[in-house]
Amino acid sequence: MKISLSETQARIVNFGEGALLVVAGPGAGKTRVLTERIRRLLSEGEGHFRVLALTFTNKAANEMRDRLIEFPNIHERAFIGTLHSFCLEVLSNRGKAVGIDRRPNILESNQDRKQLLLEAVLKDPFLFDHLENCQDAKQKNRKLGEWLGAIDKAKKNLMPPEAIEEPIHREVYELYDQSLRASNSIDFDDLLMLTYKLFTDRPKIADFYRRQYRYICVDEAQDLNEAQYQVIKALCGDSYRNVMMVGDPKQAIFGWTGADPKYLDLFLQDFQAQKIELKVNFRSSNSVVSTARMLFSSFRSDIVFPVEGEIGLLSAQNEKHEAEIILETLVKLNENGHPEIEEKDLSFRDFAILGRTRYVLSAIEKELQDARIPFYKQLSIQEESESDLLKDFELCLKLLVNPQDRFHLNILRNRWKVRPDLDIDKTTYTHSSNLVSELCKHSASHGSHIWNAIQAMRWNPQSHNCQFRSALDVLDNYADSKVREEEKALIMHDTQLWRKHWDVFLRSQKGGNCSLSSFLSQVAMGTTQQSKQEGVALLTVHSAKGLEFKVVFIPGMTEGTFPDYRATTGEALDEERRNLFVAITRARRVLYFSYPQSKMMPWGDTRSQQPSSFLRELRLV
Amino acid sequence: MTDALCTSGILVKEVRVYNFRSLKQVSIELDRVNILIGENNSGKTSFLDAIHTAIGFGRRSITQDDIFLDIGERSTPRDREVIIDILIRPVDRIGNVVDVFPEGSFWIELWGNGISQDDSDDDFVGIRTRGFWNEERREFSTERQFLQSWSKDPDKLEDSRVKEVAGTVSTRQLEPMALYLMDAKRDIQDEIYKKGSFWNKLVSDFDLTDEEVSLLEEKLLNLNDEISGKCQVLQHVQGFLSDIDKTISCERGSIKIDPIPRSIRNLSKGSDINFATLGAQSFPLSKHGMGTRSLAVLLTFRAYMTWQQGNLSENRIHPFLGLEEPESHLHPQAQRALFKQTEEIPGQCIVSTHSPYIASQAKIAQFRHFRKEQSQTIVTQIDTSSLSGEDIRKIDRMVMNTRGDLLYARGIVLFEGETEEQALPEFGRQYFGLLPNALGLSFIGVGGAGNYLPFLRLASSFSIPWYIFSDAEQDPLRKLSSALNQVGISDYSSESNIIVLNSEQNFESYLIDENYDDAIKSMLDSFHNMQDFLGDYKTRMHGQRKKRNVIRDYQCPNGDRNALMDILSEGKTQYGLPLAQSILNLTDQSRRFPGKIKQLLDKIADDLSLSRSSEV
């Protein structure tokens, strides 16, 4: 299917040297313009170069890659991925100058990070006291959370520990970083901070990447935060200007991560960029566009969509009732179709239910389950192994590729109750498999089976040919021998998940490079997640970013939920408005809001609810 | 170097080989033109094969037979791996290393993340080829990966680490710089018939337009019909072959023999080169001698590379030639010409040679000298870092251009003068019972004590054992000391390979002082066919002036000695050989080798384990 580009789209696609800011509203064909421009640059540009295409999510990267798959040698001609995965590649390749030796381990889960922080501060007598003074476990946990938050904030602003004024936070930050490095690990924010440091300290390294990538394209630029923007600036240096940013300030909804649409304006100034606006919407029906315009009068489409669509409001007595009527509407539409939707046969994939928070969706989730309607939740959160066997297996894999990983070693020792007299720290293992084999021997539980699985993998440090599937086969066989059905099912479910990860990973690797360490880091980066899911999408607004559905439900439209009760300042309220804007513009044809008139509180009381002020603004109440 | 011969923008600057055949550990720096010298079996071919195995055109996998076997080992340990590391650097058009691959360079796109930066953040590409026993497949595996770091010290192999992010090196990433290896057995005949040879790469596509092709093919068809129509044999065969349709179902009359290929594409397979020497009839190259045929292969390579380069708007190819013994079957004059032609191929070449003619065409800095110590190959090159341009030119001019053979010597004996140049080899011949040349010993008169240095530099760089037989007059000794100083020898008297005559003696006075006047006198008599040449000379010349206006006095008590000295120094060039022969003919066997000469020859015999003739 080849649709010709609009005049403005063509201007962007044909834009040559220099910086360019594209402001593109929802449904403006942003992804298409991006991919077409990359295709044009690669096929028409003279000389030899690559293109760096940075997306906000792995899903967007996959989509862009899929669209360009036909282009010869696209893997070699373009890097398409998130800024984080680009940074990981830079650090794996050039990280020596900032203390990163070979591919670093990424500590992605917040729980792991908190655990690491806890262990680090317990070793420090002063901080230990500080934590002991907390009244209870809950307060202790909150304190840890506060510290971690301070570290994250500092890192997101590219501040090293020395730059922190508050003495305790500085101390905590230092200890946390030390423990990370002792395990040859980094966290997500380090990816950016260390790359920034590398590019600033060693300009010739940044220069290498400029020589390699003649053009840089940044998608969803309204969601850049300080660290991300500075990394891109450091990469570009003083004179490199071939950067195109595509974004929409109205869709900036990641303020809580430090993202700010102001970087679009900074980009205009810093890079003396040209600005082109894409004021069209090829996605949504007239009614959806006009509803969205009520939130932002500046949002308009230069073309009038020939379909009117429908906007509806469902009012329910309580949350259960709300879930019931949503489901009822959904099932009816799925069976009978809708006069404003061209296709008569709808499937569950055409529906999305978007909540401001995950909590809003719990009643609906239960209803969907009871009605046995297929659905999926969460695109961006890491799926974790649920069985102990696979959890332990994963820990062993981490130790295998990174024997310095004291952190996961300690977790494993604890899980397996490895005898304290087995002094692994003091023993030097020339080969990490010796370490893992030793641990497996001392495990009270299924260590020997895990060791069998690892052996079946035929792994060695240099190997690019890891037999990962064989390892999973061994684990499956072991599961088969289990008596308890539940346990068996849990393991099988996990191994299937890992098989999927492995398949996605293999497909993305060029040149038959299937080393275990790069597999594990891809899993940690989330690039191996399956993007296509079946059934109704049950998502938060944030994770629905970039997606589109024929029918969208936005439940929980009460004051305090949407807008969130914590949004008190003008700035925060603006972000709530943008949240709703994003939610609305996910809809292609039909959009339903709903709200419960009363809500059951966790402590059992019933509270009556006010319809969201946004509904008034949208003239729905 | 003529300019713009590195248009590809890259050079292979270093090759490190571990555990490959006779090469346990060898690290060689490369320039644009490199000449491998050294005795047979010293590892030159292994080295060329190693590069070819790593990045060669038509390379093959590493097998068990390629693994280094140490003395006393029957089989190779399973964990011994072959490693061949190749270092590539960006260069400018005349071959000087530059910091970075420029933006838009073909190589950046080709290698991408395979490119690394060293500690000064300068670009390089390291490619490791690893051959190892793969337990999983129960066979030898070969793997090629990019390197993240390149250890400064070849002994610290662990510091050169592969980079995982770049994955394995693909064929596409190697092909543009692949080494074309031409072994000593090359033959244009094979080239023409071998699939994938340069010849076939060149001529398989005549680069004609579709119209041209169809026009020519029509002519070919007509020619075929004409030949078939006139040729009864063909019709006969065709008739019999037509019976095929009785057994296989096919349309009747579809069998047709084409005496010449009908399609342009196939025409090249029958190509031949006709070559006529002046005034002779032209006949196919395949009927010429091996020299011409082997030369033709090289010229085809050159044609291929220049065609490639000429046809691409920019350089996407780094011609890299490995050439074994270009001298095979060639006349000395042709060898010289050939080397010049090889040198002029844009790109990089490694030539292994035993030819002094080729060596004399080359520059000292281009040599890589191979030798074997026990089972290990050692490679050395001249360290030019401490030498001035003039020093290097001196070596090229004084040594290389005239004494190219010296590079192949097993030992070098250096001395100042002409008498020694004639006399010493003769003593050597009697001592060893063989001509010193045949033993690989070179006796070289350097033409004055001031000229030792370039020879010493060369010999010590290439670890060729050297000996000096020096006069002991003050001036030459001072010059000798200064030369030795510059190669790191502060006191010659403690070096047993430096034989210095007794105080103030030169070669002639030494022999007289050692009482060889009888042998000298009888030599003079027989040389001039006279009864008493010395007596006659004394009477004739007494009182006359000689050089520096000194009046000859042959009537003093030292008259005989003075006269003999004057005779010998005036007739240096003619008396050297007969003098030696006369001494060697002395009836008293114990006097046949004067002490200092014996000392020299004994030392050489011991060092190089040479056997002495029965007369010694």
Textual characterization of the structure:
- The complex is a heterodimer of chains A (621) and B (616).
- Chain A has 621 residues and is an alpha/beta fold.
- In chain A, the strands form four sheets. Chain A has a six-stranded parallel beta sheet with strand order 3-2-6-7-1-8, with helices on both faces.
- Chain A is globular, with a radius of gyration of 26 Å.
- In chain A, 48% of the residues lie in helices and 13% in strands.
- Chain B has 616 residues and is α/β, with parallel strands linked by helices.
- In chain B, α13 (389-400) packs across α16, α14 packs parallel to α22 (572-584) and α19 (517-528) crosses α22.
- The radius of gyration of chain B is 33 Å and the shape is elongated.
- The two termini of chain B are 50 Å apart.
- The mean pLDDT of chain B is 85.
- The chains are: A alpha/beta (621), B alpha/beta (616).
- At the A-B interface, α5 and α11 of A face α2 and β5 of B.
What gap, in angstroms, lies between the N and C termini of chain A?
42 Å
- Rg of chain A (CA only): 26 Å
The 3D shape of chain A can be described as globular
Average pLDDT rating of chain A: 87
Please report the total strand number of chain A as a whole number.
16
Protein chain pair with the most extensive contact, residues per chain: A-B, 36 and 38 residues
Secondary-structure blueprint of this entry?
The complex is a heterodimer of chains A (621) and B (616).
Chain A (H helix, E strand, L loop, with lengths): L6 H7 L6 E5 L5 H15 L5 E6 L2 H11 L5 H4 E5 H12 L10 E3 L2 H13 L2 H8 L4 H20 L10 H16 L2 E3 H14 L1 H10 E6 L7 H11 L6 E5 L14 H9 L3 E5 L7 H10 L14 E7 L2 H18 L14 E5 L6 H9 L4 E3 L10 H14 L4 H11 L15 H11 L4 H10 L11 H13 L4 H24 L7 H10 L10 E5 L8 E6 L15 H16 L1 E10 L1 E3 L5 E3 L4 H5 L4
Parallel strand pairs in A: 1-7, 1-8, 2-3, 2-6, 4-5, 6-7, 9-14, 10-12, 10-13, 11-12, 13-14
Antiparallel strand pairs in A: 15-16
Chain B lengths: L9 E11 L2 E7 L3 E6 L5 H12 L26 E9 L15 H6 L4 E2 L5 E12 L4 E9 L23 H4 L4 E4 L5 H6 L4 H6 L6 H21 L1 H10 L2 H4 L16 H4 L6 E2 L7 E2 L5 H22 L8 E5 L7 H12 L4 E5 L3 H6 L5 E7 L2 E5 L8 H12 L10 E5 L2 H15 L3 H4 L1 E5 L6 H10 L4 E5 L3 H13 L11 E3 L6 H7 L3 H12 L4 H9 L17 H12 L1 H13 L10 H14 L8
Parallel strand pairs in B: 3-12, 3-13, 8-11, 11-12, 15-16, 15-17, 17-18
Antiparallel strand pairs in B: 1-2, 1-4, 4-6, 5-6, 6-7, 9-10, 13-14
